[in-house]
Amino acid sequence: MKHDKKNIMVILSSPSGVGKTTITKKIQQKYQSFKLSVSHTTRTPRSNEVDGIDYHFISSEEFKKLIKKNEFYEYAKIFDNFYGTLKKKVDEIIVSSDIIFDIDWQGTKQLSKFNNLNLIKIFLIPDSKDELKKRLINRNQNTSVEIKRRFDSFEEDVKHWNDYDYIIINKNLENCFKQIENIISLEKRKAFTTAQIIQ
Ligand code: 5GP
């Protein structure tokens, strides 16, 4: 992949319900340079989701075809649905922008195998399991069965914290965002310096 080495790729992962989507949106609002990697998924859209903006919603058949054609940088089966990141989209964006990925630990592991990507891996965790449960219930996006499944996957998700560069506890949204801003400015500076040395 040919890209401007000054551009960075930030992965945000977390157990479901920690506030990743809100933070991803805040990053995009604050930094014009960041574009979201819009994943493909076989999941049904939620009432507030728009095709092409939140996800590209496709059928299982279409998804399997893309797997066969080796079109994904990474993909994973999560809660019975497939989610994946298309190579073509990422390669287009990184030429001129930074990218933010909202993907799970399985996708992070797969993307990490590509040594030429400027990846910054951030893992968000809740300050307590009780808080997580409250958030999953209060956000009103899932059925009680789905909430239980997402809550139960917490233990498995946090086992993978060690694969990440930064771990942030999201106790307070503003503090959490501030820490992410600090990470971004540090990593942008590093990427800029490295790109100049390579030139
Ligand atoms: P949700 O169904 O709540 O939108 O997402 C469920 C999980 O799938 C989240 O942890 C989210 O980060 C993850 N996810 C979304 N898109 C992708 C993707 O393209 N690849 C991988 N590996 N995970 C994804």
Tell me about this structure.
The mean pLDDT is 92. It is globular and about 55 Å long. The two termini are 17 Å apart. It has a 5-stranded parallel beta sheet with strand order 2-7-1-8-9, sandwiched between helices. The protein is 43% helix and 22% strand. It has helices at 20-30, 60-68, 87-94, 105-112, 129-138, 144-152, 154-158, 173-198; strands at 9-13, 34-36, 40-41, 56-57, 72-78, 81-86, 98-102, 119-126, 166-170. The protein has a single domain, classed as Rossmann fold, CATH 3.40.50.300. The longest helix has 26 residues, at 173-198. It has 8 helices and 9 strands. It is of the alpha/beta class and 199 residues long. Residues 16, 39, 43, 74, 76, 78, 83-85, 102-104, 106-107 line the site of guanosine-5'-monophosphate (5GP). Guanosine-5'-monophosphate binds next to strand 5, strand 6 and helix 4.
Form type: globular
By CATH, the topology is Rossmann fold
| Sheet of most strands | 5 strands, parallel
* Rg from alpha-carbon coordinates: 17 Å
Number of helices: 8
> What separation lies between the terminal Cα atoms?
17 Å
Mean pLDDT: 92
Order of helices and strands: EHEEEHEEHEHEHHHEH
Strand content range: 15-25%
Question: Could you tell me the number of beta strands?
Answer: 9
Multimerization state: single chain
Assign the CATH class.
Alpha Beta
What structural category arises from helix and sheet content? alpha/beta
CATH homology superfamily name: P-loop containing nucleotide triphosphate hydrolases
Q: Characteristics of this structure?
A:
199 residues; alpha/beta; Rossmann fold; five-stranded parallel β-sheet; four-stranded mixed β-sheet; 43% helix; globular; binds guanosine-5'-monophosphate
